[in-house]
Amino acid sequence: MGYVRTAGMSTAARRRRRRTALVLTALIGIVAAVGLYATAYYMGWLGDSDTTTADETAITTAAPTLAPEEVTVNVYNASGAPGIAGRTSQALSSHGFKIDAVDDAPPGTEVPAVAEIRHGAANLEAAQLLQTLVPDATLVADTRQIDVLDLYIGTDFVEVTSADNDSATATG
Questions:
Q1: Does the domain spanning 66-153 belong to CATH 3.40.640.10?
Q2: Which residues cross the membrane (predicted)?
Q3: CB–CB of 84/159 below 8 Å?
Q4: Rounded to whole angstroms, how far apart are CA atoms 62 and 125?
C-alpha cells in the first residue's frame, strides 16, 4: 500500500484541494450574483414598478387647461443621437411651446428609456400638457421653483411631429 501514497497525493491532500476548489467556486458564484443584482438595480430592472405605473397613469388622466404658449421647455439630448434635441425643439415650438434651452444633457445624467419630463410641484399641469405630445415620457417631479420644464430625450424616443400648419417636419 505504500506505493499508492508515494505515487500520488494523499487522501487528505486531495480532500483539501477539492474543498478549496468548492469554496473558491462558491465565492465566485456569490460575487457574480451580487454583481448581477447590482447591475439590475442600477438599470432599474428591479423595484416597485407596479406602484410607479399606477401613479403615472393617475397623473396622465387629468386634462390640462394650459395653452402651449404658457409653457417654457428646455430640451436636452440624453440619447447621444445627433440633432434630435434641435428637431424636437422645432417641433415643440411649432405646437406653440416656448423653448428656452436646447443642449446635450449634462454629464452624469441618467439616460431615460424614452423620455423624461422633469417639473416642479407647481408645473404638473404644464408637464401633462407636454406629455400629450410625448405620450411615453415619464413625469418626474423635483424641487425646482421655476416655471420651466426639462425634457430629457432617451434612446427609444420617437420624434415629435410638427404642427399641421408648419411645413417643417421632424423625421427620424
A1: no
A2: 21-43
A3: yes
A4: 8
Query: Any idea what DSSP says for residue 82?
Result: T
| Axis-axis angle for helices 124-131, 49-60 (nearest 10) | 90
List beta partners, residue 101. Answer: 74
Which residue's entry shows cell 434635441?
Answer: 85
Q: Which residues make Cβ contacts (< 8 Å) with residue 9, sequence separation at least 6?
A: 17
- Please report, in tens digits, the pLDDT of each residue of the chain (172 residues total): 555 545 577 888 888 999 999 999 999 999 999 999 999 888 888 865 554 554 555 555 555 577 889 899 999 999 888 899 899 999 999 989 999 999 998 888 888 888 999 999 888 898 898 998 888 889 999 998 888 999 999 888 888 888 765 444 444 4
Let me know: does 149 contact 71? Beta carbons within 8 Å. Answer: yes
Domain ranges of the chain: 2-43, 66-153
